[in-house]
Amino acid sequence: MNEFELIDRFFRRRPRNADVRIGIGDDAAVLAPAPGMEYVVSVDMLVEGRHFAAGADPALLGHKTLAVNLSDLAAMGALPRFVLLAGALPAPDDMWLAAFMRGFDALAAQYDVELIGGDTTRGPRTLCVTAIGELPAGTALTRDGASPGDTVYVSGRVGDAALALAVTGGRADLDAETFAAIARRLDAPDPRVALGVALRGIASAALDISDGLTGDLGHVLAASRVGAALDVAAIPCSDELRAMLAGRERDVALECVLAGGDDYELCFTAPLTMRERIDALALALGLPLTPVGAITVDTGLLVRDEQGRPLTTLPRAFDHFR
């Protein structure tokens, strides 16, 4: 296949939504935004050898490539609408591309997301998605709205994806069945789209946990010019990680819970007056929304251990250039 045959076979499709005036096939897509709405735009890359292994399941990789971008939109409270997909591929592998697009399209269909364009080239396998969401004007969740006294929340549980990597790297040990369940959190994360949309008007600040809880929360603290105090005992994690925190593998477990990335849960802050609404939201979504600490006047991040003592050092969150 040449490049254009590849595009026709795997990527070209007719526009489904009326607000896609021109879709795949021209030099650019043309969109018609609805009155009173704003677009939220995010872009993210996944690079082979950095974000995923060379032998990664292409269907799961298709899911994750889209999921990490939908997570960014969820963190802003946006409803996903459109995506562009660009990829560098070492070769036009029919079976790999078909499996990749099965995973990608299945998640896109789940959230009614339309692929409207992209690009392909030959090179080391790199996948890049630009995601476009929409929300009512002025309602976007941002990082700069946290205030002293706000509660810090985490959705779902954190640390599983990092634990899967620790097992793969020989730094922790799990039985095969448990590892398969944990690895699913790494390979096929669930973007918290419904939660993000529902948090409009409730959360004072929000972001997704892609590089680790403490590191990502640090972005909120810097933007809002506040501090925070967290409790390790309150942070939601798997039974396996909780057991590791109490044993010889505590250092690995702390790293997973506090600094492990790839969970794509949402971390958000909200005033105490929103507590009942958040509890009701957790029940409605069937998703735990756990208070893990509070925003403080003093800048900086304090993390207390299970006995309430401050941790003297914190594991470092992921950084591509560290």
Q: What does the overall shape look like? A: globular
Q: Write down how many β-strands occur, each being a DSSP E stretch of 2 or more residues.
A: 12
Going across the biggest sheet, name each strand in turn. 8-10-7-11-9-12
The span between the termini is 39 Å
Return the structural class. Answer: alpha+beta
| Helicity range | 25-40%
Radius of gyration: 20 Å
How much of the sequence is in beta strands? 15-25%
Q: The biggest beta sheet, please? A: 6 strands, mixed
Overall pLDDT metric: 91
- Determine the number of helices (DSSP H or I, runs of at least 4 residues): 10
The SSE string, one letter per element, is: HEEEHEHEEEHHHEHEHHEHEE
Low-confidence regions: none
Give a short summary of the structure.
This protein is α+β, with helices and mostly antiparallel strands and 322 residues long.
